[in-house]
Write a structure and sequence with these properties.
By secondary structure, the protein is mostly helical. Helix content is about 50%, strand content about 5%. The longest helix is centred in the C-terminal third of the chain and has 20 residues.
Length: about 80
Protein backbone atom coordinates (compact mmCIF):
# COMPACT_ATOMS: atom_id res chain seq x y z
CA UNK A 1 0.00 0.00 0.00
CA UNK A 2 1.52 3.32 -1.01
CA UNK A 3 1.84 6.23 1.39
CA UNK A 4 -0.98 8.04 -0.43
CA UNK A 5 -3.30 5.02 -0.06
CA UNK A 6 -2.55 4.35 3.59
CA UNK A 7 -5.36 4.86 6.02
CA UNK A 8 -4.91 6.85 9.20
CA UNK A 9 -4.89 4.76 12.38
CA UNK A 10 -8.35 6.03 13.35
CA UNK A 11 -9.71 4.76 10.03
CA UNK A 12 -8.37 1.31 10.86
CA UNK A 13 -9.02 0.83 14.57
CA UNK A 14 -11.35 2.46 17.05
CA UNK A 15 -12.12 1.93 20.70
CA UNK A 16 -15.50 2.97 22.06
CA UNK A 17 -16.86 1.90 25.46
CA UNK A 18 -20.28 1.52 23.80
CA UNK A 19 -19.00 -0.88 21.15
CA UNK A 20 -17.86 -4.31 22.29
CA UNK A 21 -17.07 -2.87 25.75
CA UNK A 22 -14.19 -0.79 24.38
CA UNK A 23 -12.39 -3.67 22.69
CA UNK A 24 -10.26 -2.38 19.79
CA UNK A 25 -12.38 -2.99 16.69
CA UNK A 26 -12.05 -2.21 13.02
CA UNK A 27 -13.52 1.27 12.59
CA UNK A 28 -17.24 1.35 11.75
CA UNK A 29 -17.61 -2.35 12.64
CA UNK A 30 -18.06 -4.50 15.71
CA UNK A 31 -15.24 -6.82 14.58
CA UNK A 32 -12.40 -6.96 17.12
CA UNK A 33 -8.93 -6.59 15.60
CA UNK A 34 -7.94 -9.64 17.65
CA UNK A 35 -10.14 -11.69 15.33
CA UNK A 36 -7.83 -11.00 12.38
CA UNK A 37 -4.81 -11.92 14.48
CA UNK A 38 -6.53 -15.15 15.53
CA UNK A 39 -7.21 -16.02 11.89
CA UNK A 40 -3.58 -15.45 10.97
CA UNK A 41 -2.39 -17.45 13.97
CA UNK A 42 -4.57 -20.36 12.83
CA UNK A 43 -3.03 -20.22 9.35
CA UNK A 44 -6.00 -18.62 7.62
CA UNK A 45 -5.50 -15.92 5.01
CA UNK A 46 -6.65 -12.33 5.00
CA UNK A 47 -9.04 -13.37 2.22
CA UNK A 48 -10.60 -15.98 4.55
CA UNK A 49 -11.03 -13.32 7.22
CA UNK A 50 -12.54 -10.79 4.80
CA UNK A 51 -14.95 -13.40 3.45
CA UNK A 52 -16.20 -14.07 6.98
CA UNK A 53 -16.29 -10.37 7.96
CA UNK A 54 -17.35 -8.43 4.84
CA UNK A 55 -17.81 -5.22 6.85
CA UNK A 56 -14.04 -4.95 7.24
CA UNK A 57 -12.27 -3.37 4.27
CA UNK A 58 -9.13 -4.96 2.88
CA UNK A 59 -7.33 -1.65 3.48
CA UNK A 60 -8.23 -1.86 7.16
CA UNK A 61 -6.92 -5.41 7.51
CA UNK A 62 -3.66 -4.70 5.71
CA UNK A 63 -3.40 -1.34 7.47
CA UNK A 64 -3.65 -3.05 10.85
CA UNK A 65 -0.77 -5.35 9.95
CA UNK A 66 1.28 -2.38 8.72
CA UNK A 67 0.62 -0.52 11.99
CA UNK A 68 1.66 -3.59 13.98
CA UNK A 69 4.85 -3.86 11.95
CA UNK A 70 5.64 -0.17 12.47
CA UNK A 71 5.10 -0.49 16.23
CA UNK A 72 7.32 -3.55 16.41
CA UNK A 73 10.10 -1.93 14.41
CA UNK A 74 9.90 1.24 16.51
CA UNK A 75 10.09 -0.69 19.75
CA UNK A 76 13.04 -2.72 18.48
CA UNK A 77 14.94 0.36 17.33
CA UNK A 78 14.46 2.17 20.63
CA UNK A 79 16.26 -0.53 22.60
Amino acid sequence: MSVEQRLHADEIVSMNPGVMHGTPCFTSTRVPVQTLLDYIEEGDSIDDFLADFPGVKREQATGLLALAQECLLESMSSR
